[in-house]
Structure formats: structure tokens, C-alpha cells
Amino acid sequence: MHTNQSGSAGECVDDRVGHLKKFQKELSAGTVSLVLLAVLGQSRQPLYGYQIAKRLEELGEGVLAGKQSALYPVLRNLEAAGLLASEVEPSVSGPPRRYYRVTKPGREVLREWVAAWIATRDSVDKVLQGEV
Questions:
Q1: What dihedral do alpha carbons 29, 31, 34, 40 form, nearest 10°?
Q2: What is the radius of gyration, based on Cα positions, of the chain?
């Protein structure tokens, strides 16, 4: 049984959990923007936040991992960067909804990000499989 400096095996498990959560957070930070652009890029019509979250839930199996509210700041950042555009439309069943769509520069960036993702994924896979 491994122990950390204080000698407690329980703290070692806590450290591992903490390291895993930090790693997942760092991975998520870069991939959420990519998957949001991809979902919107694949849609034939603009989508509002809840629709985007539902598509990610169906397709991404945990990209947001129950943190739906985390997508809104990313959507705003992507819009501020000119990669998305949005329009607010009234809703008959509640508050107005902000619908997002990918802009032309957003589609170009999406293509570049997808190529970078594939190259990174392939490189990491090779290292993990011992091929390098």
C-alpha cells in the first residue's frame, strides 16, 4: 500500500482523485470549444443552449458531464471571437432564447481545429500504444 508524506493511504486515494479531476478539467477546457463548434457546424439550423447540451449528451457521452451551465461562457467567448453569431428570439413557453450559428470564419477555424485534434489524438495514441 502506498502512502503519501503524511502516511495516510486515504490521502493517497484523494490525491489520485484530485489529479484525475485536474487532468479531466484541463482536457475539457480545450475540447468543449471544439465540440460546440462541431455541433453547431453540423446543424442545419441555429440552436439554443439547451438544444446544444442535449446534442452533446447524445453524441459526446460526457463531454460536459452534467455541467450544462459550463457551455454558456464558452458560447459567449466563441461569439466574441467572431466564430459564432447569435440572435435572441421570443419563446412562447418561457424566456427568450439565444440561438447560435457558426459564422464563415468559425467554419474555417473548425476545420483547422479538427485537423489539429486529429493530429494530436493520433500522436498521443501512438505514444500510449508504444509506437513512438
A1: -90
A2: 19
Beta bridge partners of 101: 85
Identify the three-state secondary structure at position 67: coil
What is the rounded distance in angstroms from the CA atom of residue 80 to the CA atom of residue 65? Answer: 25
Non-local CB neighbours of 46 within 8 Å, separated by 6+ positions: 40, 86, 87, 99, 100, 101
53-73 confidence digits (pLDDT tens)? 888 888 866 666 656 778 899
Q: Quote the pTM value.
A: 0.78
Identify the three-state secondary structure at position 19: helix
What is the grid cell recorded at 92? 412562447
The three-class DSSP label of residue 21 is helix
